[in-house]
Design a protein that fits this description.
The complex is a heterodimer of chains A (593) and B (178). Chain A has 593 residues and is an alpha+beta fold. Chain A contains 18 helices and 19 strands. In chain A, helix 4 packs across helix 5 and helix 10 packs antiparallel against helix 18. Classes of the chains: A alpha+beta (593), B mainly alpha (178). At the A-B interface, helix 2, helix 3, strand 2, helix 10 and helix 18 of A face helix 1, helix 2 and helix 7 of B.
Chain lengths: 593, 178
């Protein structure tokens, strides 16, 4: 370019100069001679040519600019689409799904009602008086108090009047004709199943943070753009969860209990298929009144679970070899007097009982004697290896610490712990322990992640396989012939143990406030699932034949849950199969009929 | 201006170059037009996916477990099937349809097809079902043969799934959005 420009400048320069300089002097030279006239004409022509050229040049420049712009747009235009489809489809917060991929928590665009006093630039924010508008709004949303609303509208401050309103309600608000009432669509967390599994899922607070359940545990990965495209998979099966909540709710209503808790646990992997704490809360309505039901009875509340501990004690004694003969008889007629404390049964169970009879009739006296022979140290070791001395293993943030007697257990402590008193654990602890009791003796931590077969933890051995096999027989006998008979769902080979523990209150244990638990597993010939049902302070009602013990309220819940969930989990009822208990039947001649 | 050979060649090259440039430009424009169409379709796909998600959520909410339970409590009263209502597998199911052996007692029937109403559809059609009037088309006058049950009998059986019964019952079917 530098080499060329000097050549062009001299060529154009003089023409430019002459054109402008002589063009202005045109009128002055008109009247001169012919020669000058010809010159003028020549100049005029030149000027005209130059003007035309300039005009042409201008148009060419414009055309080139337009073409360049078109070419630029044609080449680089899609720059605005820097967001790919995958990014656009990425949810604001990842989904949570159950083990079969059914969504339990997902994003949902819903309308909210927003008061914008600046909607009309000048003048009052509302056309009518705040009181009138508040009355109209109250007609649409009856739970919004008129006085509070009037104050909000009078104050002239922008803010939400209500989140999550229905489209038809938004239309009705629109019909009020107030420009200041806006309804923006916002992404909200939505739980299609309502209050189901609320304690497992938790909720998302107004500032987008997960609270209470897996929303809190997964908060990082649900909000991280790299991972939130993939749903978080729980071990929960929503059909099992629904059945458990249904039946627990019904059991709770029938016995007028204060609350209820339930778990379904896979005995071989530790996966939690259902976890229910009733009364539940609705995470969709969490920003309303703060709800007291957020407390999780399964993982956070510790209870003295009573007689459900007896199988654990018997298993520990079988394992340690202190009980070698299940037919050995123990006295059951006289209450035990130990260090000024009396251990008695609810009613007389006869002069003496053997081990299966002890479990079938749930005798405190005989269990205490078995534990006494076993010794505190060995019972404590077993309980420790079942995890009773630490918080339960589960991902949820709410995990209660057991009331665990430390140090060396004195004789009376050993005896009371053997039948589930003086030690308080969560129902989840009990579920994991029962899984170890029936699955061949291996304890595994409970989890809410769906595990692939390769991810199943090895666990730790607590009981010998032979002990576990004996316990399967005896747990089945309790349901077939003993206190758990109301849980005996035909064909499902249920085995389990009742537990009705008196709650500690002022001045010792209260005989009328109970915690009724039924801990079960099925099918007993090859245990797959543990089911725990617990009722907090049930009352004796018509439906429970005036009884408040677990045999009358918690056991029937299990008896109704198992037929509903068994086929869904691949356990078919079959009345031609059962665990073989023929070697133990001669030990219970009175009960087996 | 004489056209030497070299000049013709260079003019030719320039022409070819110009044509190529023009073609390239046209192609670029075309490519970008298609690309922007792709972006538009992607936007539409995104919008539709959002709509599908919205409808899915609405369906799940209206058909959630608690709603279904309330409906069942009021309308249907279904309970979990009892043990004797289950069968072990395909083999046991097939055994139910086995013809009775010679000299076997006649099966006790809890229900029987009403021959007069059902016509020739039942296997006793030759005896009792002949009295029923055949359907005659009012337009063509052709006697319809559909009531004889032959049409239904030839229907191909639904594709059977090679899985055992328990796994099929335990299966859950989800509508796929993709």
């Amino acid at each position: 370019m530098n080499a060329m420009s000097p050549r062009f400048v001299p060529n154009f320069g003089p023409h430019l100069g002459s054109h402008f300089g002589q063009g202005f002097g045109m009128t002055a030279t008109v009247s001169t001679g012919r020669r000058s006239l010809a010159q003028v004409r020549e100049r005029l022509l030149l000027v005209a040519k130059w003007r035309a050229l300039w005009l042409l040049g201008g148009f060419v420049l414009l055309a080139v600019c337009c073409l360049l712009r078109i070419a630029f747009l044609g080449t680089f235009e899609p720059a605005h689409a820097s967001r790919t489809m995958a990014e656009l489809l990425l949810p604001a917060r990842g989904e949570i799904v159950d083990r079969n991929g059914v969504p339990l928590a997902r994003d949902f665009k819903s309308y909210s009602l927003w008061f914008n006093p600046k909607a009309l630039d000048n003048g009052p924010p509302l056309i009518r008086s705040p009181r009138e508008v508040a009355l109209e709004l109250n007609r649409i949303f009856p739970d919004l108090a008129v006085n509070v609303l009037t104050e909000r509208l009078k104050s002239g401050k922008p803010g939400y009047l209500r989140r999550r309103i229905l489209p038809e309600d938004a239309n009705r608000v629109h019909e009020l004709g107030e420009a200041a009432l806006e309804f923006p669509r916002e992404t909200e967390r939505f739980y299609p199943q309502g209050s189901m599994a609320a304690h497992v899922l938790g909720f998302v607070s107004a500032n987008g943070q997960g609270k209470v359940g897996m929303e809190q545990v997964y908060n990082g990965r649900l909000t991280d753009p790299a991972t939130r495209g993939q749903p978080a998979v729980l071990s929960i099966d929503f059909r099992v969860q629904g059945a458990l909540e249904d039946e627990l709710g019904q059991g709770m209503a029938l016995s007028q209990a204060k609350g209820a808790a339930g778990i379904v646990l896979d005995v071989d992997t530790g996966e939690v298929l259902a976890l229910a704490s009733l009364p539940a809360f609705d995470p969709n309505k969490i920003d309303g009144a703060a709800t007291p039901n957020i407390f999780n009875r399964v993982t956070n509340q510790v209870y003295e679970l009573g007689s459900t501990f007896k199988p654990i004690t018997v298993a520990a004694a079988l394992d340690a070899g202190t009980v070698t003969d299940l037919g050995r008889r123990w006295q059951a007629s006289r209450p035990l007097q130990v260090s000024g404390f009396q251990i008695r049964d609810s009613h007389s169970l006869g002069a003496s009982l053997n081990v299966p009879q002890t479990l079938i009739h749930s005798s405190n006296i005989v269990t205490a004697q078995i534990a006494d022979e076993l010794g505190g140290a060995r019972l404590k070791t077993t309980m420790q290896s079942l995890g009773f001395n630490e918080r339960p293993y589960i991902e949820l943030p709410a995990r209660g610490f057991p009331l665990w007697p430390g140090g060396n257990w004195p004789r009376i402590q050993t005896m009371t712990v053997s039948y589930g008193h003086g030690i308080a654990v969560t129902p989840l602890h009990l579920a994991s322990a029962y899984a170890a009791l029936v699955n061949g003796g291996v304890w595994r931590p409970a989890t809410l992640h769906r595990l692939s077969p390769a991810e199943v933890p090895a666990g730790r051995r607590v009981f010998k396989a032979a002990t576990s096999a004996k316990m399967r027989q005896m747990l089945r006998m309790i349901v077939a012939y003993g206190t758990g008979s109301k849980a005996d769902a035909p064909g499902f080979r249920v085995g389990g143990k009742t537990g009705s523990a008196e709650k500690p209150g002022q001045g010792g244990y209260q005989r009328s406030t109970l915690v009724s638990t039924f801990a079960a597993a099925f099918p007993m010939d090859h245990p797959r699932y543990v089911v725990i049902a617990m009722l907090d302070e049930p009352k004796g009602t018509m439906a429970t034949s005036g009884q408040r013990t677990a045999a009358w309220n918690a056991a029937p819940v299990v008896g109704r849950v198992v037929p509903r969930i068994g086929p869904l989990l691949g356990v078919m009822p079959d009345e031609t199969r059962d665990v073989d208990i023929s070697d133990l039947l001669p030990l219970i001649p009175g009960e087996a009929h | 201006m004489n056209l030497t050979r070299d000049r013709v060649r260079s003019i030719g090259w320039a022409f070819v170059l110009t044509v190529c440039a023009a073609l390239t430009a046209a192609l670029t424009l075309r490519v970008n037009a298609v690309r922007s169409e792709v972006y538009k379709s992607e936007d539409r796909i995104v919008a539709l996916q959002h709509e599908i998600g919205f409808l899915e959520t609405e369906f799940q909410t209206r058909a959630n477990q608690q709603q279904l339970k309330a409906l069942n409590d009021v309308e249907f009263g279904y309970t979990a099937p009892r043990a004797e209502q289950y069968i072990e597998g395909e083999r046991q199911l097939a055994a139910l349809g086995k013809p009775a052996g010679p000299g076997a007692p006649k099966p006790v029937r809890f229900a029987a097809a009403d021959l007069a109403a059902d016509g020739a559809a039942s296997d006793g059609g030759t005896a009792g079902g002949t009295r029923i009037m055949k359907m005659v088309s009012p337009i063509t006058g052709i006697i319809s043969d559909t009531a004889s049950g032959k049409v239904q009998a030839d229907k191909p059986e639904a594709a059977s799934v090679k899985a055992d019964l328990s796994s099929r019952l335990a299966r859950i079917e989800m509508p796929e959005a993709e």
